[in-house]
Amino acid sequence: MARWLQDVHHRLVKAWMAVQVEFQGHYSVERLKQLDAFSKTLSTGRMIAVFLLTPVPCLVLSVLKEMLPLNPAEAGVYNNDMFFIRSWLVTGLIGASALVKMGQGSPRLKLNALQLAVVSLLSAGVAVMVIYGICAATVFPLPFGILVVAPPEVLMLAACFAYIFGPRLRAEPSLWNDINQQVSVYNCQVALTFIYPLYIFGFVSLTGVNQALFVLVLPIIKLIAKNSVSRALADYDDVKPQYVIFIVEVFNALYVSSALQSASSWTLTATIMVIDVVHFWVSMRDVMEIFNEMKMLMANIPQDHPIAKENFLQVVLRVLAVESEPNDEVQEQVSGALFSKTERAHLIKKSTRVLFITEYIVLVEYVEVVIPIVYSIYRVALFNLPNSAYFDSMAGLTSAQLLSSVLNVLAYSSLEFVSLILSIIILNRALGLSTLRQLAFVLETHAGMIQATLIDILIYVTQISLAHLGKRIANCLLDDNDKYPYDNS
Q: What pTM, to 2 d.p., does this model score?
């Protein structure tokens, strides 16, 4: 019986590890060297600036779009020219973000600045004209308007893309592999634009304990989505954490913020926080097991050895020097009595896996701290703008209700900040490596992809409850103003 239980436990652990994306990749040797070079030149001021400035562009653009004065949707299609101009700009920005991400994920598909501007604005213009024509012929607001605009835009983007890359595709058929991969990733993001609003629709339909139980569905959605993106990027480990986190985790953080703002009791807030704490504890426990395997190899270095005080990254770089350009001096420092050839290969493999894991962890924690804050700032800004009257999520909202909902979200963000600090302390002590520098490395070197994704998702999510986009879709998202439990008015 004991043996059977042990076997079941082993199988469960193996299955659990198999679906955890942080264990599904390794750093490449080139990326490992880039991290080392970046860390040596990074100043503290520059590092802090990267952390603080990363979320600014998406926040600024999200607020700027609300400064274009709108007329009531009831005024009709012919009296809402500004809405269609806004739709053209927003749709163009979302299209441009998608093209930038494609180019960042596959450099062979990268467009220059002129091509990017022309393709995105042209595609958005055609899509908005189609919607304008439909609205003029039928009804305005058009139900599910934000979804109806997608097909004509995607068709135009595809046509422009085929025109630009057609000759290269005929000359290099392998480009189709890059296109199919990027389309698979994009499809995962598109699927989330349907799944999460449906989840929120179900969430706000419930109250009390039922809401608290329903929130348990969120981790399942996130797990499936993360594995879908990870599978689409199976052979691209160096970009996998950024894509997984800045697509899935950003969506999840935004909708968790939405759930907290429309929560019907503090029990729900506590449930979400408990889930996060448990997930953090399990993740760190799994990670430390991986770290311990690597530390056993590092234990081969005697305390009086010249490289004994170096962190594992520096040791691995020395080992790589032996593997690529062996010479007597380097061999004497890191081989022989220290590591056999097999142990050197094992150390490199374990180290590249550890760096992949630490990058994933600190990125997740950073996103879970920053996104709720950004979303709260946006809502406060929108509350003070005239256009707030046209958002179902803001209509009739009092200052007291807004304050209560924002404090609810900031309490969650504060917990995530504590989680971030703890993860940094634990990882730094375990590795002797600055995970803050690693975080800055990712945010700066992948700024194009990260900014495009943040802008794309935040702009999309923050406009869904706009009345001009159709009452039905508005009712499926973000907040239900009848469900603010902390009304002090």
A: 0.85
